[in-house]
Design brief:
Blueprint lengths: L1 H36 L5 H67 L4 H24 L10 H23 L8 H88 L14 H44 L6 E6 L4 E4 L1 H7 L3 H4 L13 H12 L4 E8 L5 E13 L2 E11 L1 H51 L1
Antiparallel strand pairs: 1-2, 1-5, 3-4, 4-5
Helix pairs in contact: 2-3, 2-4, 2-5, 3-4, 4-5
């Protein structure tokens, strides 16, 4: 009976399991039928539409990025051109002033050697004039400001008159006190020289305005590109979040099914296949989003690097320009080949208590104590031989005070010819004072060490005497 009951129970269990399998098969069949009845706009197509919607702002962002990058490159070219123009105007102004001096000096001294100096400076001025003529020949020049062509033409005319007048002065044999020479000098200075310098000042002012304007345009374009990047990122992010919330409910059922099945597997209930009618769309979506995110991150990173590089180049250019207008923290000065001072910066003026006008044209030697002159002269000769020289010396201030410096001088070359030396120096008075105090302290410690050693030697001698006395006492006691 028991065996028969077990057989009936086993048969009933097999029938129940077959019924369960048939029901599962019918459910799968109904699910396949529902899948056939779904509208043609499935999950994948909807996600593609969402992706396309996200690509619209990305396309706009890309177009704006290319446009702004082009504008940034144009503004950088314009800024570089204006910087070169400012340098050209400054060089022309300095050279023009220098060309007025030899003829004046010739009238005062009668020394015809100034003619050679004039020809040398004149050749430099001719190179500047050639640059101006080259820019005038460019009919499509778009960087020049209003009135700049007039400045250039008038400057060429003024230089021609200055050169002609100077050569006429040098043709006068005895110019000292010569009325004709004085009239020519007055004509050269007041009719041609000073007006030309004034026009150069106005030209420089206009170029500086244009330089500032170009700099502002570059900054504005850079900020605009940064704004476009931020807004585009926000728009893309908002679009992505919107579609994520829109389709999240559609994916919730599949995700819950996955969670339920994986939890069951983790709990040890291996119930068979995990059936999802997603056709791997979830994994494809993750792959597409990662790919898109990587492309965005790469594009944004490259853009940031380009902006940082452009900003760094602009900062270097600005720093170099500021250094040119004497924002250096070191003492900077120049001498001619005879050792006469031709330039000192503000830092050197403040250190010496002399002004530039008080020292220009004068020898450096009165500023150096007699004991230090051989060192400085040797360094000067080394620089005039084409080598760099570094030395330490002391310098006399205007009020008679002395301070210490460490200086480095290098030759100044013009077309391969050494025309003077350029010097950089730094005040090391405090360092020297600290070194002297340190040396005194070292000497004091050395004396203390020697005294300590002598004391230890003396103590050793006393200990030896005590041991000898103890030994003698022991010997006498044993003999007794």
């Amino acid at each position: 009976m028991a065996d028969h009951a077990d057989l009936l129970i086993s048969h009933s269990s097999r029938k129940g399991w077959k019924f369960y399998e048939r029901e599962r098969e019918r459910e799968r069949e109904r699910e396949r039928e529902r899948a056939k009845m779904r509208p043609p706009l499935g999950i994948r197509k909807k996600l593609m539409l969402a992706l396309l919607a996200m690509l619209v702002p990305l396309a706009i962002f890309t177009i704006l990025t290319v446009y702004n990058e082009h504008k940034i490159n144009l503004e950088i070219d314009n800024l570089r051109y204006k910087h070169n123009e400012l340098q050209l105007v400054s060089n022309i102004q300095l050279t023009l002033i220098k060309t007025l001096m030899p003829a004046n000096d010739y009238i005062i001294t009668g020394n015809i050697a100034y003619l050679k100096n004039f020809k040398k400076i004149s050749s430099e001025m001719e190179r500047h004039i050639a640059s101006i003529r080259l820019s005038l020949a460019d009919k499509e020049e778009k960087h020049d400001v209003d009135g700049e062509f007039n400045f250039k033409n008038e400057l060429i005319s003024d230089w021609k008159n200055i050169k002609t007048t100077s050569l006429r002065i040098f043709q006068i044999k005895n110019p000292v006190g010569n009325k004709t020479a004085l009239n020519l000098m007055e004509e050269m200075d007041y009719k041609y020289g000073y007006p030309a310098v004034s026009r150069l000042d106005e030209w420089q002012r206009l170029e500086l305005i244009q330089f500032t304007h170009a700099e502002a345009n570059l900054t504005a374009t850079t900020h605009r590109q940064l704004t476009v990047t931020i807004l585009s990122s926000i728009i893309v992010a908002i679009t992505g979040v919107f579609f994520a919330f829109l389709y999240s409910n559609r994916f919730t059922k599949a995700i819950r099914t996955l969670q339920k099945e994986t939890s069951a597997i983790a709990g040890g209930a291996f119930r068979g296949n995990i059936e999802l009618n997603t056709n791997d769309e979830l994994s494809n979506l993750a792959h597409d989003i990662n790919k898109m995110s990587g492309a965005l991150e790469k594009s944004y990173s490259q853009l940031e690097e380009k902006i940082a590089e452009r900003t760094k180049e602009l900062a270097k250019s600005e720093e170099k320009y500021r250094q040119i207008i004497e924002l250096s923290s070191e003492h900077i000065w120049t001498l001619d080949t005879s050792g006469n001072i031709t330039f000192i910066n503000k830092r050197t003026e403040n250190a010496l208590n002399y002004t530039l006008d008080e020292l220009v044209g004068k020898s450096y030697q009165p500023l150096i104590p007699i004991n230090d002159l051989p060192v400085v002269e040797a360094a000067m000769q080394k620089a005039l031989n084409g080598e760099e020289a570094t030395y330490e010396t002391t310098v006399l201030k205007k009020n008679g005070e002395i301070y210490s410096i460490i200086a480095t001088i290098t030759p100044i070359k013009n077309n391969g010819i050494i025309t003077g030396v350029l010097g950089f120096s730094r005040d090391i008075t405090a360092i020297k004072s600290a070194e002297e105090k340190l040396a005194e302290r070292v000497n004091e410690l050395e004396r203390f060490r020697k005294a300590t050693l002598q004391r230890e030697v003396r103590m050793k001698e006393l200990r030896d005497k005590i041991k000898a006395l103890e030994q003698a006492l022991k010997t006498s006691m044993l003999g007794a």
